[in-house]
Every structure is written in structure tokens, then in C-alpha cells.
Write a structure and sequence with these properties.
alpha/beta; DHBP synthase; twelve-stranded mixed beta sheet; Alpha-Beta Plaits; single chain; globular; Nucleotidyltransferase, domain 5; 760 residues; 4 domains
Amino acid sequence: MPMQSARIHIAGIVQGVGFRPFVYNLAVRLDLKGWVRNTSAGVDIEVDGEQDVLDTFVKALRKEAPALSHIDELIASFGPANGFRSFEIIHSESIDSAFQPISPDVAVCDDCLRELFDPSDRRHRYPFINCTNCGPRFTIIKDIPYDRPKTTMAGFKLCPDCEREYTDPSNRRFHAQPVACPVCGPMVWLEKRNTPNAMDEDAIQETRRLLADGKIVAIKGLGGFHLACDATNAESVAELRRRKLRVDKPFALMILDLATIEEHCFVNGPERELLQSTARPIVLLRRKPESNICKEVAPSQEFIGVMLPYTPLHYLLLEKTDDFPPALVMTSGNLSEEPIAIDNDEARQRLSALADAFLMHNRDIHIRCDDSVVRVFEKEIYPIRRSRGYTPFPVKLPWEVPPLLAAGSELKNTFCITNKNYAFLSHHIGDMENYETLKSFEQGVEHFERLFRVKPEAIAYDLHPNYLATRYALERAERENLPAIRIQHHHAHIAACMAEHGLDGSQPVIGLSFDGTGYGEDGAIWGGEFLIADYKSYQRPYHLRYFPIPGGDASIKKPARTALALLWSLGMEWDERLASVIEFNKEERNILKIQLEKKINTPMTSSMGRLFDAAAALAGVRQIVNYEGQAAIEFEAMADPDDAESYSFELNQNEVEVRSGFESLINDVMSGIHASKISARFHNGLAKAVRMTVKKMNQETGIRTVVLSGGVWQNLTLIGRTLSLLRADGFTVYLHRQVPTNDGGLSLGQAVIAASRLRG
């Protein structure tokens, strides 16, 4: 049979995942001659061989591809043989304007872990052990193609032993870009008061001693610094809260292994899979009553966020001994609301008042990347924060779009850039409320545009005029003479969920966009919206009844204000037996009433999030909050799963009325009904109100597809009860599985709406 050649181009996540070594070994196995190389557009291959062997080779490229790879496109063409004499990996090629997806950071693999604890291995207890199957990717890459000179490992020259592994096709570290060892790679050290105190293994052991003694240590990780302390030591946790200015918001934990996690938490099958996945996210798990993890880790919560170690350094720090705690608090290394610290000097400056010591290393972090947070709902992932381990894996869009930038929202900010049919959602930026976070946002945008070769043709932004992300978008659009496209907040929520499920937008959906805050077209604060939407536009046939929130942010931070304002708007008395009324003295109540009557700094809202705040406050759960959504979270946590009663909410013209429901709620409070039953009845009533409204919308439009988005849908009690009712009525319901339902997924929706409008 005559020799032929095959020219093959592969696009997708095919760099930094051992793809070239895989191709090399496959070609050698099939006795094919030619070459493979990385380019800015993916991987190119050219091989000579008999046609049937070439066909086998092409099929095997898909079938046997490395587990961490993701092939989006494989194009093969055949022609005359080239006369190659061997197969080799040739130098990478940079192609102008070409781009490709980048692998997220990957947790340390089992093979590297075995070597880490093998006394005979030359990398025994080396905290930066990695191979082609694991280790840093996104946080160290500066540009594509993904090669060592374009990463933060460029300054570490390979020693002869590492060079031999790197160039040996039979070795697991063949072309592993972050490869290193104690001779030639990064190192760790412990600092106290800016002075190195111990190096390498001594630094790790001294860090363990400090943590066991109740100290707080700043630890440099993969995507930034963590602040760590003993999670079973209430005094240490309380001190960390005091220093970090984080009063009640839960801390994340890191626990050595699954068996130890199961001693402290209930864990089901899908949760085990997520915990052990290569992404290694923080997974929300129900805490066991007998656990000795102190309650101060997550005050008033039955769920705690837990992750397994994901770097060799973590495994060395958490090594199980009798004198070391079973769980560490591992929270982001920052003062509350600031970006996570990533640079050593930056950490010394920003974290010196927070940490008793610093465990440093000298492998630079190019881009900050917080830990991801997920939970399981209906046996599938339900993202809460999408960052390390998932970013920058793209959302595949149902059509090609122009290169765009979507700036996202104010809270839980992410941005999104698009190129062809990829939407690249950024890592978690955080709450855009200060200069430091804005700078982090700008650095992230610049990095993504360089990595994915995007020069935006337009910028999408939120309607709210005072968001820092909006100001950035408008200023940049003016500076670069770009179209700036205004996107309504709740429309973006629905579009984000549509996009991640690949809906092409040819048919409108019923969108239930429930959250805390979003600027409305009429200048009010929306958040309880029943929309008819496609990508280009939306209608708002129904919404939650407007009510006032005096002082805006003041009411958000003090749900008792929201509760009294709601009662006032419903014409209901401020009974002095209610906890929300008791929260204010007589003079304060008079001032509040004047503010409401005269409409002084009293915006109107249809927010479902604020309605939950009011219900939680009136039920006596919480009158003041220390973090966003706290009252609603604690209110949901106490809902009695066995109480089937429900409060009544009615549809009046285009508004969901709440008066009768709150009259019943107040009566239950006055009758001494426990808050757990009040919570259950409130959730049940809202689920029925949603069902009633959706059925009305279906009667009016014939639409049977429902999309749920917005931060309120993080409430599993509400979403569970709503889904069961809607599905019983035969509706097809979509909820988020790839990006967060909260504002962390909003920029995806902005991007696809902007693309749809540009397309006309």
C-alpha cells in the first residue's frame, strides 16, 4: 500500500495537558513519521504512513486523548507522503490573531503524590512536584503557545535530571512545562517580621507547629495567599475574624482526605466526585452534629465549605499526626472586600496585621485566582463561585459571535470576553467597591485579551450608572471609540443560563430572574422579575410588588428597616411585639416613618432578595446582617422540611401581591409559631406564587420553557419546591450548571445579548 500523509489541526484544550507527548507516543506506537507542534491556534500534526494506519491514528487522537484535554475541533486532510524519517516534537509557532482555550490549574495527581511521600524518590517531600497530568496552568501562563518561556517558570533553568525527563518521550514529565525539583526549582521559606526563619522542610514543620499552637499563618498557594488557622480552635478562628474584619461570613476549610471529611460532614456520591475532581473546589457539605470543628467557622450555618488539598505543599502541611488539627481554616489572604494577595511583597504589606507568620515561595503567580465554591443539587454541580480549577475553561456558544468584552456587575464580579463561538468567563474578581479590586479587574481584562487574542469590537455593561465596572466600560468605549451596549441586569441573568445550555434564542423563554439588586429600566431596584426573553430583548409582564427600602444600602445592611418599610407600604401596623420594631426606639421609628412618607432617599424595589430579608427579620431570625444575604441564608437554613402549609401570595394585574402572605406570617409570629415553620410556609407560598404566575404566562404566550437565574436561586429550599411544581405542570426548566446563578455569571449573559444585538 503506498505511503500517504495526513495534515491534522486540533483545537480545544490541547496545551498544558500532555497532548504533544500523547501524540508522540501514539505515532511511535503506530510507526508513523512526522512531527507535532503547538501553535497559538492549537496543535498541528503532519505524519506519513499507510492510509489505514493514518485512519487508525486519527481515530485514536479522539478516543485516547489525555483525560485533561478537551477536543473541540479535529480537521484532517490527506495527500502524498513527505518522506519523513522520524517523529519529533518541533518548536512551537506563534500565529498572529490565533487563539485557543487554556487549561485551568489542575490538582496534584496520584502519581506525583506517591513520589512526594516516597523516601527513595528524588522529589521526596518537594512541595512543587508536578507532571504533564497535574499542577499549575492558568495562574502561571503569560502568553500562548503554552511553553515554559511564556510562564512564570521561565527563570528556573532545568537541571540535567529534569532536562532528561523533560525530553524523554517515555517519561511522565515529557514536555511538562512547570517541571522542577529541589535542585533547580522553586523553594519555600517561613518568615516572621519580614525575616526568613526557616527553609524548605524546616519551614513546613515550623508552619505546622505554629498552626497547631493556634497561630494564624499566611500561606502562598496556587492562585494567591490563604490565611490559615486551626479550625477546631475557637479562639484562633475568632481572632482571624477580628483581624480580617469578617464578622459572620463562613470560612472555607481544607481537610487532608475524604475519610476525615466524612468524620465531620455528611457526604453523598456526587459530593465525593466533586471533592476529588481535578478542579478541587470548595464543596458545601452538611456538618455532622458531633464534629469538633468549631461553630465559629460558619456561625448559624448547618453547611460548611470544605476542600481537599490540591497542591503538594498542602499535602505536606496537612500530613496526619496526633498533634495536628484535622481541619484548617483556609480563607483568602486579604482584608475583607479586598482582592486576594498574590505577590510576596504585596502580602508582606497587606497581610502583616493579619498573620503571625508567612509561608512564602518564589514561583510567581501571574494572575490571582480564588478557590471555586460549588454545591450539589439534584446530583449535579451547582456553581456558586467559578474560579480556580474551572477558569478559563470556556462556555461553548451555539453560534459564532464577534470579539466582545462584557464588564459584569458590581458584586461577585466576573468579566467575559468572546472569540468565535467561545465565551471566556474570568476568574472571580470580587465586589467592585474599591480601587484595589478595580485594578485587579483591569489586570484580568488585559491578561484575557492577550491570551485569547481579543481586541473588543464592542463593550457590554450593566445599566447601573454607579458601578465601577460600568464606568470602566463607558470610559474605555469612549477612549477607543467602541460601541457601548447597555444590558439590563435581569435580562443578562436569563441570557447567561440560556447560553450555557446552548439555547439558540430562536424561541423566547419564561425567565424567572430573582436576586437582591439590579437596576431597572424605570430607575427602581428590580429583583423579582417574571420575563419573556430571548437574546435580543425581553418583556416584563409580571414582577414582585414594589415596596420602599429607606436608605438603600442602609436597609440592605439592616433588614429590620426593610421589614418596617414593607409593613408601612402594605398599610400594616408596626406592632411593638415584633423583633423588627423593637430594634428601633420610638424616636428612630418616627424618623423612619417621616423618611417613608416624604420619600427621602427611599428607592422602590421589586427585589425578591429584600423580600426574604423582610420575612427573616419579622420572623425574628436576624435584624442586622454582616454579609450579603445573611438573613435569607439563615432563614432558609431553619425551614422545616415537614411543614406543608403555605402563605398565600396573589397576582394582581402585573404584580405579585404579598400582603395576605405577610398578614399570615405576622399572625404566626404573634401566635408563637416557631421560625422554622414560618420559614417553611414562606418558601412554600413563594413556590406556589411562582407556579401561579408561570401558568398565567404560559396561557398568554404558549411558552413552556422556563429559565431560573439570579442569586435568590442559590436557595435550595425555594428552587427545590419551585422545580417540583413546575415540572409537575409539564414545564421544561433550565438552571445553572456551568456558571453561577448569582452575579458571578452575569457577564456571560451581557456578552451574548450584546452579540445578538450587534448581529441585528
